[in-house]
Amino acid sequence: MKFELKVLNNGKDLPIPKYQTNQAAGMDIYSANPEKEEIRIPPSEYKLIPTGISIGLPEGYEAQIRPRSGLAAKHGITVLNTPGTIDSDYRGEISVILVNLGKNDFNVVRGMRIAQMIISPVSQFKIDIVDELDTTSRGEKGFGSTGEK
After folding, report:
1. Which of 44, 50, 86, 137 has the fewest CB atoms found within 10 Å of its own CB?
2. In this structure, what are the phi and psi dihedrals at residue 119, rounded to the nearest 5 degrees?
3. What is the CATH number of the domain that holds 103?
4. Using CA atoms, how far apart are residues 135 and 88, in angstroms rounded to an integer?
5. Looking at residue 110, what DSSP letter applies?
6. pTM for this structure?
7. How confident is the model over 64-116, as pLDDT tens digits?
């Protein structure tokens, strides 16, 4: 399958998103902050990071923006609204909200792989208002009700 990708002016010299291995689920996306300008993210703070790309997905698909495991494990950097959703009708620049859950400042440099993008099918449902829901063995049991093991 294919989708359209537009490289914006602030992303002209950056790699396009790509899968790092043949069986990777997500393609890495890169930071497009201005040249020679690091974006500093202090602990417990978040910043909106530009990527220099916009995409055109077919109807019935979304792009999910997810954290990179290496940044999370080594630095405590994750995507704040994970997974971030890029709807199929959005045509603006993709930006990533990175949050620093680590103990040290983190500097985002231009061209850094900051997140991964996964293209997934989506479904839209019609809502049927009812007075009662069907009965299940779980019922209304919630948080932790199925045990830990």
Report:
1. 137
2. -95, 125
3. 2.70.40.10
4. 35
5. T
6. 0.88
7. 999 999 999 999 999 999 999 999 999 999 999 999 999 999 999 999 999 99
| Total structural domains within the chain | 1
Q: Is 35:110 a contact under the CB 8 Å cutoff?
A: yes
Task: Specify if 78 maps to a domain.
Answer: yes
Residues 6+ apart with CB under 8 A from 72: 78
DSSP assignment of 54-66: EEEPPTTEEEEEE
Asked if the structure places residue 149 within a domain, the reply is: no
Residue 82 has which token pair?
């994970």
CB burial class (10 A; 0-12, 13-18, 19+) of residue 46? middle
Q: What is the pLDDT of residues 40-49, one digit of tens each?
A: 999 999 999 9
Type of residue found at 97:
I
User: What is the C-alpha to C-alpha distance for residues 51 and 36, in angstroms, rounded to an integer?
Assistant: 15
Domain residues for the domain of 70 are 4-121
- Residue 137 domain flag: no
Paired with 85 in beta bridges are 64
Would residue 127 count as lying in a domain? no
